[in-house]
UniProtKB/TrEMBL annotation:
It comes from the Bacteria. It comes from Clostridium cochlearium. This is Double zinc ribbon. Residues 151-194 form the DZANK-type domain. The keyword Transmembrane applies. It holds the Pfam family DZR. Keywords: Membrane, Transmembrane, Transmembrane helix. The chain crosses the membrane at residues 6-22, 42-63, 83-104, 116-136.
Length: 199
C-alpha cells in the first residue's frame, strides 16, 4: 500500500513540474534567450554542489575501505576494477554531456530558455528531466514557428510571419507600392509583381 502511495506522489510531482514548465514556457514564448538567463547561475551552483558531494563520497569510500591508493603489488582484479569503474563513470558522464548539449542547442533554437532546460535535464535524475523536456518540446512545436528572424532595430528574435516586432514595434515587412503585397524589408524586387522596391 505504501509503494502505491509513493509512486502516486512521485507521478503527481512529475505532473506538477510538467505543468509549471508548460506555464513558464507559455509566458516566455517569444523572448530572446541569447543573453543571460537567470537559470545559468543556478546551473553552475548545482554543478558545484554535485562536484563537492562527489569528492566527499569518493573520499568516504576510500577511507571506509582502507584503500588510500593503489598498491603496486595488488592483484590484477584490484587494478582492473577501478579502471572499469572509471570507464563506466566517464561513459555516463560523456552521455550526460551529449544530452545536455543537444537540449541546450535545441531549446535555444526553439526560443525556449536553454539554461532552464539544461538544469532540468542534467539534475533531475533517471532521465526524467529529459522525458519532461521532450514532452514540453513536442507540446511547444505544435503551434509555434521558429524564431529564426531578427528585428533590424532591436535585434530580438521574431517569427518569420510577424509583420511588426512585438518588442519595439518596428515594421518587419513593407508593402509593395505597385501591387500592395507585403514583402520583406530587405528585398529589392517584389516577388509578386516584379516591381523594383529599392526606389
Amino acid at each position: 500500500m505504501s509503494m502505491f502511495l509513493i509512486s502516486t506522489t512521485i507521478l503527481a510531482i512529475i505532473a506538477a513540474i510538467i505543468y509549471a514548465i508548460l506555464r513558464i514556457t507559455r509566458k516566455n514564448n517569444g523572448q530572446d534567450y541569447e543573453g543571460e538567463s537567470p537559470y545559468k547561475k543556478l546551473f553552475y551552483i548545482f554543478l558545484g554542489i554535485l562536484a563537492v558531494i562527489l569528492v566527499f563520497f569518493l573520499i568516504g569510500v576510500n577511507v571506509e575501505s582502507g584503500c588510500y591508493g593503489f598498491s603496486l603489488f595488488g592483484t590484477l582484479a584490484s587494478i582492473i576494477s577501478p579502471i572499469i569503474f572509471l570507464l563506466m563513470f566517464l561513459g555516463f558522464f560523456i552521455i550526460l554531456i551529449l544530452i545536455g548539449r543537444f537540449v541546450y542547442y535545441d531549446a535555444k533554437s526553439r526560443g525556449m530558455d536553454p539554461w532552464l532546460w539544461l538544469l532540468v535535464v542534467i539534475f533531475v535524475p533517471n532521465f526524467i528531466g529529459l522525458i519532461i523536456y521532450l514532452i514540453v518540446r513536442s507540446y511547444n512545436t505544435n503551434d509555434t514557428k521558429p524564431y529564426n528572424k531578427r528585428c533590424s532595430k532591436c535585434g530580438s528574435s521574431v517569427r518569420e510571419d510577424y509583420n511588426i516586432c512585438p518588442h519595439c514595434g518596428e515594421n518587419l515587412k513593407k508593402k509593395c507600392e505597385y501591387c500592395g503585397q507585403l514583402v520583406d524589408e530587405n528585398w529589392n524586387i517584389c516577388p509578386h509583381c516584379g516591381n523594383n522596391l529599392s526606389k
